[in-house]
Amino acid sequence: MTELTRPEIDFPSGPAPDALDIEDLVVGDGAEATPGATVEVHYLGVGWESGEEFDSSWSRGESITFPLRGLIKGWQMGIPGMRVGGRRQLVVPPHLAYGPAGSGHPLAGQTLIFVIDLLDVR
Fold first, then answer.
1. What sequence ranges are listed for the domain PPIase FKBP-type (predicted)?
2. Does the model's pTM come out above 0.90?
3. Going from the N-terminus, what domains does the chain have, and what CATH number goes with each?
4. Would 96 disulfide with which of 73, 89, 105, 118, CB 3.0-4.6 Å?
5. What is the DSSP string of 17-57?
6. Strands 38-47 and 53-56, sheet pairing
7. What is the pLDDT of residues 45-67, one digit of tens each?
């Protein structure tokens, strides 16, 4: 597997999408992630409107492992089908992320962009 480096996210133009947008930036050739899998990933998340990074495993210097069923809907829908070694960009509208504005989460009401590197599937 090619060693992946911290991704850069190009600032989007135009209106945010209403539906989940999935784009493979690198297609992996390893094991495929399935809906019930536990995945190990590196990721970077930025806000659509602000372009500001709000979370990144790269910034912490280590990948993270978790079951897909415990994540936001956009990840539950957007990661299955990825293969280990791949890099995928997800643009996640609020209803598939943290809900509408005012619902309590600091990222509520925001469209979020994630670049996710799939490192392992269990």
1. 36-122
2. yes
3. 21-121 (3.10.50.40)
4. 73
5. PSS-EEEEEE---SPBP-TT-EEEEEEEEEETTT--EEEEH
6. antiparallel
7. 999 999 999 999 999 999 999 99
